[in-house]
Amino acid sequence: MINHSNYKYITSDMKMSDVIFDNPYFILMLEHFEIELTLQEKTIKQICNEKKIDIDLLLTFANLYNGGQFKEINYSFDIVPTIVNYLQKSHDYYLKEKLPKIQFYIQELYKINEKSEIFLLEKFFSEYLNEITEHLNFESNVVYPYVINLFNMISNKNNSLKENFSVINYKEHHNDIEDKLADFKNLLIKYLSLNDEQNIRRKLLFNLFELEFDLNIHTMIEDSILIPIVERMEQSKENSL
DSSP letter at 35? Predict the structure, then answer.
């Protein structure tokens, strides 16, 4: 995880490769942005210019990944497609890679355990998996299409808004999905006695910590950047009627 006491502010003139050497979590951030390696000696500013990514947005995300605090910026509506695409790529990472890997290690523990505690572990994760899958699918199938359609309407690419939806509905549904993840880690670290090979539990915990780390940033992006922009877009729509 990130050591906040050694936090270093990321700036546009830094070489992207250098910041990755300092913090390998940036590889995941670049993947969500669809920025591929190899980076050569390019600075963050050069890469943003090449990929047509708002540099303030990328720096905000980068500093969150580096353990920094959220910096409030009055972003323009133009960054909405970039944010939505980034968040959707995050969903792909959770659902197609990280969650199945966690499930795999739980199954590995199950193979070497006959204790009743393993059923508690499986049940706990199964409930969490259902909850987070429902949450992510709601965002992917309802929230993000609404946001893009709203953006298109504001940008005069679309004259009407099909969905009967509002960001208020999103706020009500946007429950905290990190709490159960913390409880799950507590079970593994503090309380659950299993016949296990220590390396399986370590791999399971490392994947849980990585998922939690990226989910926290994902939530901050939604709560502190996307939702405020959508609220302003909705207000702009109302003012134009």
Answer: P
Contact (Cβ atoms closer than 8 angstroms) between residue 83 and residue 230: no
pLDDT tens for each residue of 174-230: 566 777 888 888 888 887 776 667 888 889 999 999 999 999 999 999 989 999 999
- For residue 129, give the nearest of 222, 206, 211, 210 by alpha carbon: 211
Give all strands (DSSP E) within 51-193, no chain letters: none
Q: Please report, as a single letter, which amino acid is at residue 174.
A: H
Q: What is the CA radius of gyration of the chain?
A: 20
H or E stretch including 174?
A: none
Only one residue has tokens 């926290």, namely 216
Tokens linked to 52? 């047509």
Nearest CA-CA partner of 12 in 62, 51, 52? 62
Kindly list the domain boundaries of the chain, sorted by start residue: 4-65, 77-240
**CATH fold of 4-65, please?**
SP0561-like (1.10.3910)
Write down the pTM of the prediction.
0.89
The residue written with tokens 């990130």 in the block is: 2
Q: Are 51 and 35 in contact (CB under 8 A)?
A: yes
Q: Is the dihedral of CA 2, 55, 91, 104 positive or negative?
A: negative
Residue length of the chain: 241
Q: Are 20 and 26 in contact (CB under 8 A)?
A: yes
The residues that bridge with 15 in the sheet, in sequence order, are 43
